[in-house]
Amino acid sequence: YAYSRPVVLRGFTDNTKFQLLCSKSTLLKEFGSRTVKLSTANTYSYRKTLYFFGDNNFTEWQSLFDQYESPPFVLPNTSGAFSFGIAAGTGVPFHWHGPGYSEVIYGRKRWFLFPPDKEPHFHPNRTTLSWVTETYPNLPEEEAPMECTIRPGELLYFPDRWWHATLNLDTSVFISTFLG
Fold first, then answer.
1. Distance CA 28, CA 113 (A)
2. Among 10, 51, 132, 166, which is disulfide-ready with 91 (CB 3.0 to 4.6 Å)?
3. What was the pLDDT predicted at 38?
4. Span 44-59, mean pLDDT?
């Protein structure tokens, strides 16, 4: 699967301690006074979806990230970079990047995936929710995406250059590991 298709993995990490540290009360107590820079997730993102990503001083958050148990799988000549997020009812529209993992700590995250050679029909300034309610029901069966919903304790591995969009179905805390 590493180079050919996404896969949901269960039982490979135990992030119980990390989950406790990511509760709303603990995050506010331990990190509530910290400044967070938010940025768009990728070049196809609409302006309103922002993530805790790239431009932050991760040494201030190291005590939290040190408790995260990364997936035990690697690809040759890659290392992981984390993206941490908290969201409710939002997601990112279709985009692609290098391979990685996504893990839900709280809540549920729905994924829609297309292989690299099958660009989805989407408008970059429309939300994933609008795509799900307006475009997705009208897609012919042969144009439907692969999809899954991941929950706490589950990892989604996505290969290089796979198109994907996400929708956080609940208030969700999630962390992605990008392999680059």
1. 34
2. 166
3. 66
4. 55
DSSP state of 89: S
Query: Does some domain include residue 119?
Result: yes
Number of domains in the chain: 1
Q: Is the pTM of this model over 0.85?
A: yes
33: domain CATH number is 2.60.120.650
pLDDT at 157: 95
32 CB-side CA count, 13 A: 8
What is the rounded distance in angstroms from the CA atom of residue 11 to the CA atom of residue 96?
26
- Spatial CA neighbour of 91 closest among 75, 74, 79, 107: 107
Containing structural domain, residue 139: 7-179
The burial of 71, by beta-carbon neighbours within 10 Å (0-12 exposed, 13-18 middle, 19 or more buried), is given as middle
Residue of 71, 92, 59 whose CA lies nearest to 15: 71
Instruction: Provide the pLDDT confidence category of residue 117 given band limits of 50, 70 and 90.
Output: very high
Q: Which residues contact 160 (CB under 8 A, 6 or more apart)?
A: 3, 98, 99, 116
Arithmetic mean of pLDDT, 93-102 = 91
